[in-house]
Write a structure and sequence with these properties.
The complex is a heterodimer. Chain A is mainly α. Chain A is 76% helix and 0% strand. Helices cover 72% and strands 1% of the residues of chain B. Chain B is an all-alpha fold. Classes of the chains: A mainly alpha, B mainly alpha. The interface between A and B is large, with 102 and 92 residues.
Amino acid sequence: MSTKGHLSGKNRIRVGGVAFDTVLTILLLIFCVIILYPFLHVIAVSLSSSRMITRGAVGLIPQELNVKGYEIVFSKATIYTAYLWTVWYALLFTVLNVSLTSCLGYALSVQEFKLKGFFSVLMLITMFFSGGTIPAYLNIRNLGLMNTTWALVLPGCVSAWNVFMYRSFFKGISHEIREAALIDGAGELRILISIVLPLSKALIASFSLFAIVGMWNSYFSALLYIKDASRHPIQMILRSIVFTSNSMGSSFGGDANVMLTNGTVNPLNVQYACLVATIAPLLLIYPFIQKYFEQGMQVGAVKG
Amino acid sequence: MSNAAAARTFPKKTAWERMKKWFRILWQQRALVALCLLPLAVVILFQYVPMYGVLIAFKKYKPKRGVWGSAWLDPWYKNFQEFFNNVNCEHILLQTLKVGVFSLIFTYPMPILLALMLNEVKSKWFKRSVQTISYLPHFISIVVICSMLNTFGSLDGLFNNLRALVGLPRVNMNAGTAFFMPMFIGSAIWQGVGWGSIIYLSALSNVDTSLYDVANIDGANRFQKIRHICLPAILPTTTVVLILNTGNIFTQDYTKILLMMNETNRMDLEVISTYVYRMGIQDGRFEFATAVNLFVSVISLILVVGTNYVVRFIDPEQSIW
């Protein structure tokens, strides 16, 4: 492998290196454009006039500013209740997820815990086998949880993967601290809350954010379990607006219907406005939380 | 002799005594057991009970009688028989395999490629910016992705604007099946490539930098360094990801396919998991849908074990177990 390199002059390597770096930079810039363009395009179209949209003249910049789409979306109470429900589902799910996972993860991280092996296997099995959609659905129905918040937050709130991540993170905390606390008379719950969790802020932050985003983005369990449309999360609202566009006017009432038929508003205005309303909260906090996501993923990558 | 002496001084504990000691320690650890109770209750109630519920695949399920009380089917494999005798069965299986295999082939290499490219970037600032941007789509929901696809593919949409730009006629890309695969796989790549690259990047960051120095002295060019240093460094990770992804060939993201379906292509795009949803949730044929789903789960498990076996056969060090 090495002898060939010696033959080429030092100069050639340098020139080759510069060309390589330039091509690499250009390719990655194109990549960034491909990633970002759809987002910016959606925002631009949502703010453009119907005429320019139909003409296909909107790229990255709004043409003939038009905020009617947003007016229609935010004129209905639906979107506000959907926001509230989504926040409620996400918060409850996150609290349950983090508290239950850290309890189990902590117990399994204690070296001398007698049931450690048995409980770990119990969790491990769930990584490889699952009942599937239908038995899970029947289970929720039999438990009488249809149309309740519990149907959305409980089934996924203790996952084997998270428990094992927590366990390996907690194992990294010196067990002498635990022993010292035990001698001082602290109980296990006390040790978990006052010693282990404060030392695991990075982990908790990352996994809370995963939970919040996961819940914010989920629609399928709501589709299965929440029949009452007034309790639908935001993703279900977006789904009904985009995928049943012929009934869109009627779902927003008379005014919207008139504007849609006389062409003041393009259906795309409304659909994209709703799309922006769905992702805006996440996009706004993304720059601040991005660092924690990566941390969390790296905890996973090292162990996985 | 020493053995005999040891046996005299420390008589071997009986099983009873060892059990008593085990329980005494467990009693001392009751606070730890208590911490586990609530999480395990949730796991048993929402994961193990549905696993047991799979039994209805072989039964005539009566909700009032419960899973155990319901009568067994005669013959017990009746639901499976019905599925395989169904005229659509072959089409659904083929479509499932097609979507799964093409997704794997096209999405799997992309994060590896991106990670290798990012690893070559010298400017820390540029690398971080590209990474941050690349993760963004991962946080977007399936509904949003499919909404984008649906609107971009409509006559006024972005994709058609691009088609018009290069002189192609505007078509409704959501209708029919012609554009399903590129849109399904393309969006999956767009969404997953950045996030998927993290695991490879962290493997690459563990490479001993002196290897690069040695390669420089040997006069290796950039491609040779990638070929002989970076690729071997990420090989174990790529193998693990490949094995896990192979298990998913039959269980693609059906929530996404459900959203991409419409009246013009519903029958053609049907894959096993959407069929399970349609039969089970919409038509209420719980036992039949569970049987079909069970069939897929078994195939997936065989695939994971099989891939792992092949990998172990080629190179024992790379297999998961």
